[in-house]
Amino acid sequence: MLNKYVRTTIIAITKYILPVVLLLLLAPQFVQFSSQLTQTNQFFQLHQIAFLLVHSLFYLALYWLWPRIIHVLVNRSSHDITQEQINSALKAKWYLLAALVFFEVLVWWR
C-alpha cells in the first residue's frame, strides 16, 4: 500500500510539480538577460492592441485545429499508434496552451 502511494506521489511530482517549478525558476532568467527583449518590448508596447488580437487568434486557432493536426499526423505515420497515445496527444493541447499563456503573461507582467 505504501509502495503504491510513494509511486503515485513520485509520478505526480515529476509530471506536474517539477515542470511548473522549473518553468517558474528559469523563465525570469531568460527574460532578464536579453537586451533584444527590451527592444522587442518597446515595439510591442507601441503595437499592443494588434499584438493581443493576433495572439488571441493564434491561441483560438491552436485550440480548434489541434485535434485535426493530431489526426493528420497519425494518419501520415507508419507506426502503430494506440488510442491511448492519441488521447495523450490530444490532451497535450492544454499543456502547450498553458505554457504559451504563461510566457505571454510573464512578458506583459514585466
From TrEMBL:
Keywords linked to the UniProt accession: Membrane, Transmembrane, Transmembrane helix
Membrane is among the record's keywords: yes
Transmembrane intervals: 12-31, 43-66, 92-109
Protein name, per record: Uncharacterized protein
